[in-house]
Specification:
Helices cover 21% and strands 43% of the residues. With 135 residues, it is of the alpha+beta class. The chain has a 5-stranded mixed β-sheet.
């Protein structure tokens, strides 16, 4: 998340999922556009060792974009703005690795979540992997 805060200057809020509740019921336009980053799931692959553990673990996380659509109630025009913001996020984090134990970040998918209460919500999912090992 610090990387996104540094790399993307067009966004007013970059935060964790806990801060998303402020936008849920009464989205203040001074906080939009916003990006919220949060874990979605972790999945382990088959163990490759006998008498020990060596498993690749996929870590899926999301970046939810919230953008005001007060002047575009159908949300069509804002989807272009969201696409531009998604491109900026991708430029910032694709291929990035927080440390040598975690693989570079890969893009999985993006999807419209909802258009509600004057906000268009778009979710981007990413994957990184690490090795779980105990011998």
């Amino acid at each position: 998340m610090p990387k996104l805060k540094k790399d993307i200057v067009d966004v007013k809020t970059v935060d964790k999922i806990a801060a998303m509740s402020v936008l849920k019921n009464n989205p203040p336009s001074k906080m939009l556009p916003a990006i919220y980053v949060f874990p979605i799931s972790k999945t382990a692959h088959k163990n490759e060792l006998i008498g020990g553990v060596s498993q690749k673990q996929d870590i899926i996380f999301g970046a939810a974009i919230a953008m005001s659509n007060k002047n575009d109630l159908a949300g069509g025009e804002k989807l272009n703005d969201i696409e531009n913001l998604e491109d900026q996020i991708n430029l910032s984090i694709l291929g990035f690795s927080a440390n040598s134990e975690i693989s570079p970040i890969e893009y999985l998918r993006g999807q419209l979540v909802k258009i509600d209460n004057g906000v268009v919500w778009w979710l981007i999912e990413y994957r990184a992997s690490k090795l779980l090992r105990k011998v």
